Amino acid sequence: MKADPTPAGVQALRPGRELMTRQQLPYFVGISGRSVGAQGLSMHLVVIPPGARSQPHRHVGHETAIFVLEGRVLTRWGEALEHEVVSEAGEFLFVPPGVPHEAVNLSPTEPARAVVARNDPAEQDRVEPWPPAAPG
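RE: above sequence
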């Protein structure tokens, strides 16, 4: 029997193309159910253009962990986005499931970059705008 030189399921991946998310931020897709068959997590690179912000939103049923690589990002959160925290390069940020939030790049000239991980392999399927649309 010939041994497989690569352990089953181990995959290396380099993000290739930018994807515009429901939050209206460009992502470079990394680990997900679709890209590598992940069962319980996703991890992507997000780039917030100079002075840009995400649309207010929430992630239903899953946690979000963020590690800021470059820049300063203001995260407004809460039912009325009434709370604020600034994250800088080298810092982590945790967003619990269902918490409304938005991210704002504080630099008018430089992009902010962060690694975003979630405990859902298809996290874009459960992103909802905030506030939710009125039933119609």
